[in-house]
Design goal:
heterodimer; A: alpha+beta; nine-stranded mixed sheet; 7 helices; 35% helix; B: alpha+beta; three-stranded antiparallel sheet; 3 helices; 5 strands; 43% helix; 20% strand; globular
Chain lengths: 242, 86
């Protein structure tokens, strides 16, 4: 099964074994010529199953069983993320919210509360807060460091995303705390979390491009210590907005 | 010995980084100063611990013992995370 979809301004031809991926990507369908092609095979699906099971074991939770169709959607995004650095684009693990035409990326390791904090922004700001992607947005970084966040259909368990492109204003590293506080940090201080939460390609050359893209990422960086009260969103929004 | 191809060295303005590709077993990041960067640079091609120490002595003005111990420490750490092809 084959379809062409547009992600982060790149036309991607997807050749799959199962239909799920095409249903997932329906809102991103494109009639243009493909810029890149990804084709999945059975071993990609098997590898995703192994990765998922290994992660569950590592995290000490019951091993979850996913359908081959769902696992293929993961394999396809992995294949796209492998190629995106060649299109000046990096996949980041994080929740990305847009307000007044500017995007904010909350990033942290799994389970810290990125989606929870993004939900607090929606609670605080109502319809002004638009979800770009709640889990794995694509970020394109141009030669001068300006970044644009793109929605994708791989949008986390709450399925929150929009097919939009929004200039990225800030990246905010989240940490849980009893009391809320926020400070602007240097890019050097943000580097560890950026490197850990960016998708790291298996191809060394693509990884090297990813590192160069992160190097030139010219946005503001913040570290937010937060609880789950809406006052945390008030603090982060008021501090980071233009 | 040399650095495995699954590990990429990267220098920013202030620090040297060693970052594994998605296919490496180690998933962390190694960060350090210019000394680390110089050692990583030397390990990009086939070499020995003695050769790395010798090259570092030529580049850095520090007591030989200090250089040797720094080099050994870094190489030991790299071995632990599986970054070295022996």
């Amino acid at each position: 099964m084959t379809g062409i979809y547009r992600f982060a301004g790149v036309n991607v031809q997807i050749e799959s074994l199962l239909p799920d991926i095409h249903k997932l990507c329906e809102a991103y369908r494109s009639s243009g010529e493909p810029d890149i092609t990804v084709a999945s095979v059975q071993s990609d699906i098997d590898l995703e199953r192994e990765r998922s099971e290994a992660e569950d074991v590592k995290e000490g939770r019951p091993v979850r069983r996913f359908s081959p169709g769902y696992l293929e959607t993961l394999a396809v995004y992995r294949a796209i993320a492998e190629k995106m650095p060649y299109c000046d684009t990096v996949l980041f693990h994080g929740s990305c919210v847009a307000v007044d035409g500017e995007a904010y990326l909350f990033t942290a390791k799994s389970g810290t509360g990125k989606s929870t904090h993004a939900r607090l922004w929606r609670e605080l700001l109502g319809n002004k807060a638009v979800m770009v992607n709640d889990d794995k947005p694509l970020i394109r970084i141009d030669g001068s460091g300006r970044a644009v966040a793109f929605g994708t259909p791989w949008d986390g368990k709450h399925r929150l995303s929009s097919n939009i492109a929004v200039p990225l204003r800030a990246v905010c590293a989240l940490e849980r705390a009893a009391d809320n506080s926020i400070c602007e940090i240097s890019k050097s201080d943000a580097m560890p979390v950026l490197l850990c939460q960016a998708y790291r390609p298996s191809d060394p050359l693509a990884l090297s491009r990813t590192l160069s893209l992160i190097d030139r990422l010219g946005v503001r960086f913040y570290r937010l210590f937060c609880n789950t009260d809406v006052s945390a969103a008030q603090l982060s929004y008021e501090t980071m907005k233009g | 010995m040399k650095l495995k191809k699954e590990f990429i060295t990267h220098n920013t303005q202030n620090e040297s980084l060693l970052v594994p590709t998605g296919s490496a077993d180690f998933s962390g990041i190694v960060r350090g100063n210019k000394t680390l960067g110089a050692i990583l640079g030397l390990l990009k091609t086939e070499t020995t611990e003695a050769e790395v120490i010798e090259a570092m002595k030529e580049r850095f003005d520090a007591p030989e013992e200090k250089i040797a111990s720094d080099v050994r420490k870094v190489i030991d750490e790299l071995r632990k995370i599986g970054a070295i092809d022996e």
